[in-house]
Write a structure and sequence with these properties.
This protein is α+β, with helices and mostly antiparallel strands. Helices cover about 35% and strands about 30% of the residues. It has a single domain (about 25-125), classed as Gyrase A, domain 2. It is globular and about 70 Å long. Keywords: Signal.
Length: about 130
Amino acid sequence: MKLLKCRFLLIALACLLWISRCMADKLTVTVSTVMATYDKQTGKPVVYVIFPQASYEPLLKWSQNNVGKTVELLINGQVVHRTMLKEPLYDRKLVFSEPDWTDLAEANALRRQFVKSPHGQVELRSSSQSN
């Protein structure tokens, strides 16, 4: 009986670890500011997404675990952008850009998607796929 309890406990712990690993790949955060502008260094259109201070710890931990992975930005459950996460988000800011963006119209289209997010919440989801 004792062996059965230990086996059950090990299975339960393994399930919890697996579930926590799956959940670590997703993060729902509130956005405080979204700006479409031109990057000062490259001159290309970009969208800056800035998260509030309250999101700093979970955002940093999530980003540290997902460097090198493709990150999907979901608003209302729909993927609106994919990008490669190149480094942890130490400054609570995510920058989106695309090589084919030539003017602010494309960047503003992404910025407008954020207006549709309920309560300013977006989901970040990672995968091991390369961008």
